[in-house]
From TrEMBL:
Upper taxonomic lineage: Eukaryota, Metazoa, Chordata, Craniata, Vertebrata
InterPro entries, per database record: NAD(P)-bd_dom_sf (IPR036291), Sc_DH/Rdtase_CS (IPR020904), SDR_fam (IPR002347), SDR_family_member_7C (IPR052148)
Name of the featured protein: Dehydrogenase/reductase SDR family member 7C
Family as reported in the entry's similarity comment: Belongs to the short-chain dehydrogenases/reductases (SDR) family.
Gene Ontology biological-process annotations: intracellular calcium ion homeostasis
Keyword NAD: yes
Encoding gene (name): Dhrs7c
GO MF entry, a single one: oxidoreductase activity, acting on the CH-OH group of donors, NAD or NADP as acceptor
Keywords: NAD, NADP, Oxidoreductase, Signal
Organism annotation: Serilophus lunatus
């Protein structure tokens, strides 16, 4: 039994993810189950959302989970065991109006983890995606005209 250790991670900050994964592996030696369960979303018309915000959503919802997974994966492969779970969203399967960046990032994540599942079968590593329907989450109310502030976490 290991004492719990709190490690803060901003999943949208791709540059720090590898260091955090290394810290976890140095502390515990391995990760048996990796659950990717963090995301950001924004609501707005495509023409109203900046490309910068589109990229931030993609970093958090796609590049964040795959970067963390790729950092932990070699350890799982060498041990020939592990479970990787992506908590995604139904919008990874279907898109709805005013959620283009979010849906696109979730579609990309589903595609990546579906491919990973097939590749990891030979190493006895289980890869699952969970796509629940709409959920309540924390929301910051934006100032009028400030779409960047309309981020769900």
């Amino acid at each position: 039994t290991y004492a719990p250790k709190l490690i803060l991670l901003d999943i949208s900050d791709i540059n720090c993810i590898r260091d955090v994964a290394k810290e976890i592996l140095n502390c515990y030696g391995c990760v048996d189950i990796l659950i990717n369960n963090a995301s950001m979303k924004v609501k707005g018309a495509v023409q109203s959302i900046s490309l910068e915000l589109d990229k931030k959503i993609m970093d958090a919802n796609y590049f964040g989970p795959i970067t963390l997974t790729k950092a932990i994966l070699p350890n799982m492969i060498s041990r020939r065991t592990g479970q990787i779970v992506l908590i995604n969203n139904i919008q990874g399967k279907i898109g709805i109006p005013f959620r283009a960046a979010y849906a696109a990032s979730k579609h990309a994540a589903v595609g990546f983890f579906d491919c990973l599942r097939a590749e990891m079968e030979e190493f006895d590593i289980s890869v699952s995606t969970v796509n629940p329907t709409f959920i309540c989450s924390y929301h910051r109310q934006p100032e009028p005209g400030n779409w960047e502030a309309s981020i769900w976490k």
